[in-house]
Amino acid sequence: MAAPETSTAAVPTLYTNNTLRNAFGGVLSFFILLLIGVMAFSIRLFSVIKYESVIHEFDPYFNYRVTQFLAKNGIYEFWNWFDDRTWYPLGRVIGGTVYPGLTLTAGTIWWLLNSLNIPLSVETVCVFTAPIFSAFASWATFLLTKEVKGTGAGLTAAALLAMVPSYISRSVAGSYDNEAVAIFALIFTFYLYIKTLNTGSLFYATLNSIAYFYMVCSWGGYTFIINLIPMHVLLCIVTGRFSSRLYIAYAPLVVLGTLLAALVPVVGFNAVMTSEHFASFLVFIILHVVAFVYYIKGILSPKMFKVAVTLVVSVGLAVCCAVIAVLIALVASSPTKGWSGRSLSLLDPTYASKYIPIIASVSEHQPPTWPSYFMDINVLAFLVPAGIIACFSPLSDSSSFVVLYIATSVYFSGVMVRLMLVFAPAACITSGIALSQSFDVFTRSIKFQLPGISSNTEVDAAETSSATAEAQNDAVKTEKSEETSKNRPSKKSKKKEKEEKPSTKAKAEKRLLALPLDSSVISLLLLILLGAFYVVHCVWAAAEAYSAPSIVLTSRSHDGLHVFDDFREAYGWLRHNTDVDDKVASWWDYGYQTTAMANRTVIVDNNTWNNTHIATVGTAMSSPEKAAWEIFHSLDVKYVLVVFGGLVGYPSDDINKFLWMVRIGGGVFPHIKEPDYLRDGQYRIDSQATPTMLNCLMYKLSYYRFVETDGKGFDRVRQTEIGKKHFKLTHFEEVFTTHHWMVRIYKLKPPKNRIRGKTKKSKSQKTSSTSSRGKRSGSGKKNPWQ
C-alpha cells in the first residue's frame, strides 16, 4: 500500500508545481512582452536621434496640419472645416474627405497629456504616435498568434513584428500617416475575430465590431478586413466547419460593423453601396441559410427534414438571386462597376496604367521587385512556407484563417508595393509559428538525449507530471461530485492505471519523434544564427534605410556628410517673402508640404481627388511658356515651384516625373501627346530631345541658368549634357533658387510687362499701336487648354 500512498501524495505536489510553473511563465511572458514593446518603440527613434524631431514624407504634413486645427478649434469645427488653402479655387471639405482615426487618436493623446499638465506640443505627439502604436501592434500580434498556436509562437511573432523593416518603414518617429495606427487596428480586429471564433462570446463579437469601426476610421484598407473575414466564413461553411461560434463571430460584425462604418463621413453609404462590401452581405445571407438548415435538422425527423431543406434551399436561392439582381443593377449603373480605382488596380494590375494614370504614377502603387521582399521581410520569406505547413498540423478554424490571410496578402503585396505593409504581420505570424515549433522540436530532442539525463528519470518524470496533472484535474472533479463515495480507492487505482498507459504511450511517441543529438544542436545553432542575421538587418534598416526624413536629405562622399535642407529653405522663403493670399502651383506631390510649411494656397495636393484639376497643372507644365502662362494666370497663380535634382543627383525630381504629367494631362486634354516628347520612343533631355520637350515649361524652369553651374550643363541624374543650354524666360522670372538648386521658384510676370509700347509715347505711335494690335490678336487666339 506504500506505492499508492506515495502516488496519492504526489498529486497535490505536482498540482502545486504546475501552478507555480504557470504563474512564473505568465509573469515571464508579461515581462518579455514589455521588453518587446520597448524594443518596438526604441528601434524607431533613429530618425530623431540622427536628425531631429520632424514630420516625414508628404502625406504626414497634411495629417499634422489637420491635427493642429483639431487641437486648436475642437472636434465640431473639425467636422465642418472647409479648407480654402487647397485645390484653389475649389477648396476641400476636410471633415467629410479624410479618415479621422489618426487625427482623433493623436488629438486625444495631446488632450490627455495636457490635462495631466504634461505640456507637449502637437508636433511632438504626432512624431511619436507611430512608435507608440508599433508597440501596441506587437502586443496585438502576440494575442492573435497565441489564439492560433500558443504563447511561445505568440511571443516569437510579436518580437518579429517589432523589428520587421516593412512595418518600420511606415512607423518610424515622424511618419505620421494613417498606417501608423491602422496596422494595429487591423491586427487587433483579426485577434478579436479569432477570439470570438474560439470562445463564441458575444462580448468579444461586440468588441470586434468596435475594433473594425476604429479601423474604418483610420485607413481605407479596411476593405481588406471586410473581404477576408467573409472569405474565411465561406471557407468554414464549405469545409463543413459551421458552428454557432462561427455565426456569433460573423453576424454581429456585419450588422453592427456596417452601421458603425456608415457613421464615418468619408465612408457614409459606401459601406452598403460599393462592390467592395457586397461579398460580406452575400456571405451573411449564406450563413443564415446554413444556420437555419442546421436548426431545423435538430427539431425535425429525417423525412420532414428533407422536405424542409428543399423549401429552405429554394427560398434561399430565390432570395440570393433577388439580391444578386439588385447588386448587378447597382453595379451596372457605375462605369467602374461599383469598384474604386485602387480596388480595380488590385484585381487587374494593368487597369491603372490603362485608364487612371494618376494612380499608376504613385511610386508606392507600383509592383515590388524581388529584392524588395528580402529588404522588407528578410529571412521571414524563407520561414513563411514552414509556418503555413505548421498551421495544417492540426488544421483548426483559427489556423485556416492565418493560411487564408497569408495567401491573400502575398497576392496583394505582389500587385502594389505599399501593401507589403499588410503582408508583414502575416509573415511575422507564420514565421513565429514556424520558429516556435522548430525550437520546441530541437530543444526536446536535445533534452531527451542529454548524457546526464536518462529516459527513466527526468524525462519520465516530466511526462508523468503532465499526465498526472491531467489526471489530478479529473480527480478534483471526481472528489467534488462523489465526496461520499465509499469505493474511492478503487477509482484511484483505476486512474493510476490510466495514467500509466498514456504516459508510456506518450514516452514511446516522443522517442520516435526525437531527432539525432548532433542534428538537433546544429539546427538550433542555425536558427539562432538566422535570428541574429534578422536582428542585424532590421537594426540597419531602421538606422540607415528608413530613418532619413524626405524633407531633409543627406549623402556621404569622400569629404564627409552633406545635408540638403533645400525643401525647408524654399518653404521658408515662400512663407516670409510672399503675400498670405498668393497661390503657388507645383506638381501635386508637394501640395501638402507647401500648405503646411509655407502656409500658402495651392492648386493641387496629394489628395488627388480631382483628376481634371491635376491634368490642368500637368498640361501647363507640358505646354510652351506662353500657353502655360495663360493657364496659370487663369487659375490666379502667382508663383510656380519646381523640384530639380540635376545638380546634386537627386533622382525624385520633376524631370523624372514629367512623363506622368504628360500622360495625366493628355488623358483630359487630347492635344498633349506623349510621343511628341519622346525621340524614337526614348525620353531624352540632351541634344537629341524633341523640340516639344526642349520648349516645354518644365524643361525651361528646371534648366534655366543651369549651364552657369559648370559651364557644360551636365545633369547628374540623367548623366548627360542638356540639349538647350542658353535661353531666356519671357513670361516667368526666377525669384528664388535654393542653395543646392533642388527647389526653384518662379513668379509669373504681370500682363502689362508683356505688352510692349502700350505706355510709351513717342513719334512712332502708329508702329506701336500696330504692334499692340498684333499682340492682342495673338493673345486672342483660342486657348487649347479651354
Keywords:
5% strand, 786 residues, 65% helix, 5-stranded mixed beta sheet, mainly alpha, single chain, 35 helices, disordered N terminus, disordered C terminus
Taking Cα atoms only, what radius of gyration do you get, to the nearest Å? Answer: 33 Å
The proportion of residues in beta strands is 5-15%
Inertia-based shape: globular
Main sheet characteristics? 5 strands, mixed
Helix content: 55-70%
Identify low-pLDDT runs: 1-6, 454-501, 758-786
Number of helices: 35
Structure description:
It is globular and about 95 Å long. β5 (583-585), α28 (591-598) and β6 (601-602) form a beta-alpha-beta unit. The longest helix is centred in the N-terminal third of the chain and has 41 residues, at 2-42. The strands form four sheets. A five-stranded mixed beta sheet has the order 6-5-7-11-10, with helices on both faces. It is 65% helix and 5% strand. With 786 residues, the chain is mainly alpha-helical.
Which helices and strands appear, and what pairs or packs with what?
Elements: H1 2-42, H2 46-50, H3 59-73, H4 75-79, E1 82-83, E2 92-93, H5 94-97, H6 101-115, H7 122-149, H8 151-163, H9 165-168, H10 179-199, H11 202-218, H12 222-238, H13 244-261, H14 270-273, H15 278-299, H16 302-332, H17 341-347, H18 351-355, H19 357-360, H20 370-377, H21 380-391, H22 397-415, H23 420-448, H24 458-481, H25 488-513, H26 517-545, E3 553-557, E4 560-564, H27 566-577, E5 583-585, H28 591-598, E6 601-602, H29 611-622, H30 625-634, E7 639-643, H31 654-668, H32 691-695, H33 697-703, H34 707-710, E8 714-715, E9 720-721, E10 732-737, E11 743-748, H35 765-779
Parallel strand pairs: 5-6, 5-7
Antiparallel strand pairs: 1-2, 3-4, 7-11, 8-9, 10-11
Helix pairs in contact: 1-7, 1-8, 1-24, 3-6, 3-28, 6-7, 7-8, 7-10, 7-23, 8-23, 10-11, 10-13, 11-13, 12-15, 12-22, 13-15, 15-16, 21-23, 22-23, 23-26, 24-25, 27-28, 29-30, 29-31
